Prior knowledge:
Blueprint: H1 7-15, H2 18-27, E1 50-55, E2 58-63, E3 70-74, H3 80-93, H4 111-126, H5 132-162
Antiparallel strand pairs: 1-2, 2-3
Amino acid sequence: NTASFDPAMxxxxxxxxxxxxxxxxxxxxxxLVEFDPNVKQKEEEPFHFVAYVPIDGRIYELDxxxxxxxxxxxxxxxxxxxxLRPILQTRMQGFMGSEIRxxxxxxxxxxxxxxxxxxxxxxxxxxxxxxxxxIAMLHxxxxxxSLSLEDEDRxxxxxxxxxA
Length: 164
């Protein structure tokens, strides 16, 4: 009688009952497992995240498997990601042909805010342009930004519904 046992003791008692064990084993698939000590076990890389951050005009790599931050160099462009791109491409090419897979994720402010800020920058430039071709290009970019902003708004609305 196991009525007074805690769950762990009930489980232990059931697993030690020969009748239950034989019924359970009668439904299990019969397979042979062979261990060959001469076969070298494949050592897998752990999954982990590596972050890249701009700090004081330099790009740093933060890797939890390393002792500390790694200084990757000075930021030379107004957009530090332009400096980071070739570093990432070189690293990823170094692993081509192996089974290592990469996922790139960015933590950034709202994409909608980014697009709205870009539209504001373009609007400020518009009054300084005199060449019709430049004005047409600017209007084209503004239109693309407007479409992108509408797309982002739809994504946000869909996201709110999906996560509700």
